[in-house]
Amino acid sequence: MKKWVAIFSSALLAGGAAVGVSASDAGKFVSYENTVATNTETVTEKDDNQAKDQITKEEAVKAAQAILGGSVKEVELDREEGKLIYEVELYFNGNDYDFDIDAITGDVLSIDDDLLKTPVKNQMKVNVGEAKREALSLFDKAGIKDVELEMKDGRFVYEIEVKVAGEDGDVYIDATTGEVLYIEEDIRNKAISQGANVDHKERSSQESTNKSDHDSIKITKEQAVKTALNHVGGGTIDEVELDREDGILVYEIEIEQDGQEVEVDVDAATGEIVSVDWD
């Protein structure tokens, strides 16, 4: 399951590509969206001095280690979407964990990498088994491929990769309340078609967002895949998703090539290569 460099927003953002579904019955879906935190810049000394109320690096590390007692590898003060963030990297039991700490409030905003490998999992009110059952209950016939525990937008979330009707997609379950926060677009319609009651207001908002996204898509998934394969010199397609990064819709294409994995992002409007990330 690919790690996200993302901050989840609990409010519905206009123009978002990934929108949750509200329901009054089964699943109790909550509006949710993911927005990728791009346009990140390292804060200069001048910027640093201007933020008089910000916490220190030591305080940011303390906030991270209060959750996971790892050793510090790196601390940076960055600006993400206009917000000052301490990026704290901790090493724990053979894995690196990336924390985003609000440089003003000291709140932990996100933790990247699987916390199921740490004692943090024992603090969750909803255990992994309960989260899996909740995800599976959304579909008629489905299987679990992978589960990770992360923090997004200040809350612990199970990221559960589900396979249903030949499609793979992620379901996000709140690790505190057990609520379904987000269903990935590739499998969302399969859950909705199996009995979830979508209220009119949420459905109208979703339809408006989907129409806006649809109007901006100028190339097909197949064209994007062809572009990506040509760019990296071939390979086997593992996964293709449509997502929004830095305000634009992109096809995220995961390719396996000679034992290596590479993700190619292709602009859904222009067909241009946006980024290439080799693992």
From TrEMBL:
<feature type="domain" description="PepSY">
    <location>
        <begin position="218"/>
        <end position="276"/>
    </location>
</feature>
<feature type="region of interest" description="Disordered">
    <location>
        <begin position="194"/>
        <end position="218"/>
    </location>
</feature>
<keyword id="KW-0732">Signal</keyword>
<protein>
    <submittedName>
        <fullName>Peptidase propeptide and YPEB domain protein</fullName>
    </submittedName>
</protein>
<feature type="signal peptide">
    <location>
        <begin position="1"/>
        <end position="23"/>
    </location>
</feature>
<dbReference type="Pfam" id="PF03413">
    <property type="entry name" value="PepSY"/>
</dbReference>
<feature type="domain" description="PepSY">
    <location>
        <begin position="126"/>
        <end position="184"/>
    </location>
</feature>
<dbReference type="InterPro" id="IPR025711">
    <property type="entry name" value="PepSY"/>
</dbReference>
<feature type="domain" description="PepSY">
    <location>
        <begin position="55"/>
        <end position="111"/>
    </location>
</feature>
<feature type="compositionally biased region" description="Basic and acidic residues">
    <location>
        <begin position="198"/>
        <end position="218"/>
    </location>
</feature>
